[in-house]
Amino acid sequence: MNKIGLGIAVVGIVICLIGAGLFVAGGERFGSLEESQQYEGRDGEMKLEGYAEGGWLIVTMEGEYASGRSAISEEEGTVNLSNEDCDLVKKFNLTNGDGKNYFIPTCENSDDTTEDGWIHVGVICDSERKYGDEGIGCPDGTYTWDTNGTLINVWDGEQLIEGIMGGLAALGSGFFACCCGVVVLIIGIILAFALQEEDTSQYYQGNNQTSSSTNSGAKGWDEQTDYIHKEKEEVPEKSEIATPEDKKEEKKRSGEYELPPPPEL
User: Which of 67, 138, 146, 243 is 20 to 30 A from 261 (CA-CA)?
Assistant: First the structure.
């Protein structure tokens, strides 16, 4: 097989392996989304650290938006909670003993893109003012939820978005790399066999041309002149060489006579 084609095929295999690695990395990124979950429960306590001056937490609960779905469609851009759910979440409270409510309800949402049966109902510790102008950070400590018995989940918004985007990017890159690797592998296999056949035909063609030129350009031993055993040509003896006098005698015997030269005037 042709070495160039084999090299291209090996490159294709390597690209496929890279794509498979990216697929695995994407799966791990999605699997690590659970690490961004900070709380799950009803009317319980939650410990927070590191959210006084940065980051934010997303609060979700089971349900559907007013559109009948649990995610934003590309055409909508934003979705709203139903009036019943909006009234419900406005009564949620998160306190740490200082009498301040750190929960900010969001009856209108634009960042929920996952159809999973859970909807975004509010945020806490929004010191960066991503969901409003209040900008309330959460000092380190233990907080108590009052949700009227509603099951909620609390997620680190920054980690959640980075995990989803990173997982999607890894999966997309892995898929693209696998497609490219398969194409390169197929091209390498085709070239490996195609170039091999071409080289072989050229090799035999060159040998045939060399053989034919050798046969046509050089005679065989039986066709060449044998200078070694060639008989010497017989050289006539001196006595056998005819002289002018002999030629004159032969003409006289045959009745032929030469005319005398004309007289000089």
Answer: 243
